[in-house]
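[Q] Does anyone have a clean structure-token version of this?
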Amino acid sequence: MTAEKTSSSNAVLVNLRGLLPELETLYTDLHAHPELPMEEVRTAGLAANRLRAAGYDVGATERVVDAFRAHFRANRIQETRPTSASEDFGSFGTEWHAPSVFWFVGGTDPAIYAKAKETGRVSDIPTNHSPQFAPAIHPTLETGVEALVVAAQAWLFR
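[A] Here you go.
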């Protein structure tokens, strides 16, 4: 290992050691106030506060959702549960110092989705990283472009 790499590794360890007391306090606090899965209101609030303090725009999603609700009919919007949809997505906004919001555009043929829902097999529908993923090109393409324009307008025409 070169001296430069050793120095970098030591700096990371020193920084981590400095974070340990704060992380231990957070860990203890979270476990002292357990919440049901997908109902972590208090925990989400703590996470939002920490992200805000680190410079993240936690209101970006609300702004885009509000724009979607104003533009699309209610039956075209569906709130999803939290998901680890793209582990690197947040890095783009951070790197470019720009707000970033991740959303899904339904691309499954409605008949296929209805049958999967009826049989309790929605999770079997291939998603975007699957080799079997084959979205219905129309109206998926139009909806995707429309969503991008509406989201952009939420920022450009405040």
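[Q] Thanks! Anything notable?
[A] The chain is about 60% helix and 0% strand.
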